[in-house]
Automatic annotation (TrEMBL):
Organism from which the protein derives: Paractinoplanes tereljensis
Alphabetical list of SUPFAM superfamilies matching this protein: SGNH hydrolase
Gene3D superfamilies tied to this protein: SGNH hydrolase
Keyword Signal recorded: yes
Name of the protein in question: SGNH hydrolase
Source lineage: Bacteria, Bacillati, Actinomycetota, Actinomycetes, Micromonosporales
Span of the signal peptide: 1-30
Domain of life: Bacteria
Keywords from the named record: Hydrolase, Signal
Keyword field contains Cell cycle: no
All residue ranges annotated as the SGNH hydrolase-type esterase domain in the record: 228-420
PANTHER family (alphabetical): GDSL-LIKE LIPASE/ACYLHYDROLASE, PUTATIVE (AFU_ORTHOLOGUE AFUA_2G00820)-RELATED, GDSL-LIKE LIPASE_ACYLHYDROLASE, PUTATIVE (AFU_ORTHOLOGUE AFUA_2G00820)-RELATED
GO molecular function term, any single one: hydrolase activity
């Protein structure tokens, strides 16, 4: 067990699936290898959640916003859910001229290779990491990854984000336009809802295909914080000003620290995800919400270069239940969290636990009592190296079964103002390690 255990219990007053990672491959197959150079760090992530259809004969230009400065960029492309190979015929990486834009800075678009090859095949259940691209990025700067892989199973991540705030993608008008730095083949309209898996031409806020991790070989940070969570971490329904997820607010604050003290933030939230292994409450197909957190630890957390600390915010979907699964007991959720913490500590990493936010459960109801029991365990068990009492921050003092009205979007989700409060509340010492 990890030897240093502290707890932050502060209020405010007013997903085992092992997905082998392939470092590169040629156009006919793939081979195993290291994920990245020593000292590298994950600077952006968007965990893949399911497979939805087949990619059209068009290029998809995806926008990712890195959390810290660095140089020497690699991207990871995955096929964890496909039953057929993903064949990447060509891939390029460049810098957009403006946040969220599909048009790229002149001469910034660089070909991605995989062990020197210009194409790569990703077998079912596998992933690949590109060779390093000699590109330097600033904190909160976008990179655009353009991929041409017609006829491949679409392993995706989808959620409704803020307008023109990554992650996002543009599906091209047709053919291989990955090397084109202009936006001629990548129209910004129509805007396709981010929570809908779609292959239609246009702008897809919140949607990425195959791309689930961006790393830098030489980060201006000492490592990476991975935020493992559900829709609240993903940013679902966090609408309104100031227009950032709580993880992005936290990343901005971390960037004010010296490079030797800061960590990058890699967001591993998936809307609808559960912390315990059970049928997903909302989706009988198993393709909407990613594998339960224990089954995606290897892919979404442990494989991230430079990971030092894991921040766990899950349990809402388990405790709430749905048409496809009954509400979970507090014991089920606690056992799952304990198991995750044990595996994190076995890797000599730190884990921070956040309490479960109010869910509009009636006072005295079984659901509410289970939520309170889980939160009391998080606060007092000593299992976590730090505790962030998100419940105390956002609950309404007049009715602690709900969030403060001005800070919530609905019963489960904060709005953007609520996310801003959470992102500012977190003591930096709790997450930098």
């Amino acid at each position: 067990m990890y030897s240093v255990r502290r707890r932050w219990i502060t209020g405010l007053l007013v997903a085992l699936i092992t997905v082998p990672t392939l470092s590169a491959a040629n156009s006919a197959g793939a081979a195993s290898g290291p994920t990245a150079a020593h000292g590298a760090a994950g600077v952006w992530s968007a965990s893949l959640e399911g497979v939805h259809g087949v990619s059209p004969d068009a290029t998809i230009r995806q926008i990712a916003r890195v959390s810290v400065p660095g140089s020497g960029i690699r991207v990871r492309l995955g096929n964890p859910f496909g039953s057929a190979p993903v064949v990447i015929r060509e891939a390029w990486l460049g810098r957009p001229i403006a946040p969220g834009a599909p048009k790229l800075v002149n001469d910034s678009n660089k070909r991605l290779t995989f062990r020197g090859a210009r194409s790569v095949t990703i077998p079912p259940g596998q992933s690949v990491v590109s060779d390093s691209v000699p590109v330097t990025v600033r904190a909160q700067q976008d990179v655009a990854v353009s991929i041409y892989a017609p006829g491949s199973p679409v392993n995706d991540h989808t959620f409704p984000p803020f307008a023109y705030d990554p992650p996002a993608s543009y599906i091209g008008t047709g053919g291989n336009t990955a090397s084109d730095p202009s936006d001629a083949a990548f129209p910004g309209y129509p805007v396709i809802p981010g929570n809908t898996s779609s292959t239609a031409v246009g702008y897809h806020p919140g949607q990425t295909w195959w791309l689930d991790l961006v790393t830098v070989d030489r980060p201006e940070a000492k490592g990476t914080l991975v935020t493992l969570g559900d829709s609240i971490t993903d940013g679902y329904n966090a609408y309104g000003p100031p227009g950032q997820r709580w993880t992005d607010v936290l990343a901005d604050r971390l960037n004010a620290l010296p490079a030797s003290a800061r960590v990058a933030v890699a967001n591993a939230g998936i809307s609808g995800n559960t912390v315990s292994v059970q049928p997903n409450p909302y989706d009988p197909t198993g393709q909407c919400c990613g594998p339960p957190a224990p089954q995606r630890l290897d892919r979404d957390v442990f494989s991230v270069p430079g990971v030092r600390t894991v921040l766990l915010l899950e349990g809402t979907n388990d405790l709430g239940g749905g048409d496809n699964a009954p509400p979970a007991s507090s014991a089920q959720v606690i056992d799952a969290m304990r198991g995750i913490a044990d595996r994190v500590h076995a890797r000599h990493l730190r884990i921070v636990g956040a309490t479960v936010l109010p869910m509009c459960n009636a006072a005295g109801s079984t659901k509410e009592n289970n939520r309170l029991a889980v939160n009391e365990w998080i606060r007092t068990s000593g299992v976590f190296d730090e505790v962030l009492d998100f419940d105390a921050v956002l609950r309404d003092p007049a009715d602690p079964t709900v969030m403060i009205a001005d800070l919530r979007n609905d019963c489960y989700h904060p709005n953007a103002a609520g996310d801003a409060v959470l992102g500012r509340f977190i003591p930096l010492s709790a997450v930098v390690g």
